[in-house]
């Protein structure tokens, strides 16, 4: 397994291009199943999760063409010859977003067999809300041998659905299914994340009839079929926030190109509260960490437009060197503090009490060998390592590769001392 080596202490200065959003790209790829026409997605990030989704769709029978390697890469998908309605365990267990093929397959083909995702590092993450809503739309669902066996005798029927809790994935799955259902579907207490809106706008471009985009109530009039389109994925607000935290903790000055402030207001407000100015430029956002120390603040994660849970670990790392104390409360997932023991190895002063963590700012951090445990936790270790004295080695960086495109390249371009130590290189060195 690859490792990443960082020597901290250099303020980040320069320009970082923000890639397309992973959490928009994944449902958008699944949406190709709703039509036999070509769907072309631009500004696609090159990430392990995108490759996993591409492989999943290919085994259903989707034809994929990838044009370009990085920045602005386009992927064309065509579900004109679907021959397999099963999403197998060996794929679904590596990426929970695989469950997003369920709604589209059911809506277009009337049947689907999708492995239950199983647990995940940050929580049990059930999919009961997805299944309950599909049953309300007329799907017959059985759980057999760890698989969801779903079928629709005729056609999914639109209905009035009230989600018991806000769920990004459930909103996306049912939104896609409703586009081809008979009649009107109302989704109440729907997720309002920008990635959900991005999916809705793309579905509209494919001929879907959707009202209320960006609000907690979506109304969808089912249509008989959808056509293809070309759609550009929004920028990744979590990647942008992650690099903003890195610029802040190193006392740097970085321009994040391609991101819009409107996608991350709650994050910008929290940075401002901590004394870090994030201002809009013509190309994106500028983060200036020089001058005053970071101030301790309180953060409580919440569904959009609240503070995103996917930024919690990164902010905790940044606040570990703040003046004073900070309280972080995680309300979305039940086990999203696995970065804490690793950050403590680097000299942070953090105490977790249930769903809250008290962070007392320290004046310096020390590099150490640490282990990535999940995608966003791994970025919190990078952020701490960039500010720590000495060398940090981060193990299990495959977690990072799921959600951050060309991380080392982007940070090195801003002056960071960062390199990837590939497993092959390590083996060769040891053999020598
Ligand atoms: C999406 O996951 C994101 N992933 C997550 O990002 C993100 O943390 C999460 O939304 C919350 O914003 C993608 O978009 C691919 P949820 P999702 O359904 O859809 C519970 C990252 O780091 N729940 O909104 O799986 C669930 O357990 C990832 O990029 C049910 O109880 O999240 C959680 O406590 C991590 N029953 C809460 O709702 C259900 O049927 C929110 O989950 C579904 C969810």
Q: What characterizes the major β-sheet?
A: 4 strands, mixed
Query: What spatial order of strands do you see in the largest sheet?
Result: 22-23-1-24
* Beta-strand fraction estimate: 25-35%
Low-pLDDT stretches? none
How many individual helices?
15
Kindly provide the radius of gyration, computed on alpha-carbon positions and rounded to a whole number of angstroms: 22 Å
List the ions, cofactors and other small molecules found in this model: ligand EPZ
What best-fitting shape do the alpha-carbon axes yield? globular
How would you state the average pLDDT, rounded? Answer: 95
Which percent bin holds the helix content? 25-40%
* Secondary structure: number of strands: 24
User: In angstroms, what separates the terminal alpha carbons?
Assistant: 19 Å
Find the structural class using helix and strand composition.
alpha/beta
Q: Strands, helices and their partners?
A:
Blueprint lengths: L2 E5 L5 E5 L4 H9 L7 E7 L3 H13 L2 E5 L5 E6 L7 E2 L1 H4 L9 H8 L1 E5 L12 H9 L3 E5 L2 E5 L8 E3 L5 H12 L4 E5 L5 H12 L3 E3 L5 E5 L7 E4 L4 H13 L3 E5 L7 H9 L3 E4 L3 E5 L9 E3 L11 H8 L5 E5 L9 H7 L3 E5 L2 E5 L8 E3 L3 H13 L3 E5 L2 H4 L5 H6 L4 E5 L1 H9 L1
Helix pairs in contact: 1-2, 1-7, 4-6, 5-6, 6-7, 8-10, 8-12, 10-12
This protein binds ligand EPZ.
Short description:
The protein is of the alpha/beta class and 432 residues long.
Structural commentary:
The chain is α/β, with parallel strands linked by helices and 432 residues long. It has 15 helices and 24 strands. The protein has helices at 22-30, 48-60, 89-92, 102-109, 128-136, 168-179, 194-205, 237-249, 265-273, 312-319, 339-345, 375-387, 398-401, 407-412, 423-431; strands spanning 3-7, 13-17, 38-44, 63-67, 73-78, 86-87, 111-115, 140-144, 147-151, 160-162, 184-188, 209-211, 217-221, 229-232, 253-257, 277-280, 284-288, 298-300, 325-329, 349-353, 356-360, 369-371, 391-395, 417-421. A 4-stranded mixed beta sheet has the order 22-23-1-24. The chain has a 4-stranded mixed beta sheet with strand order 2-15-17-16, covered by helices on one side. The model has no long low-confidence stretch (mean pLDDT 95).
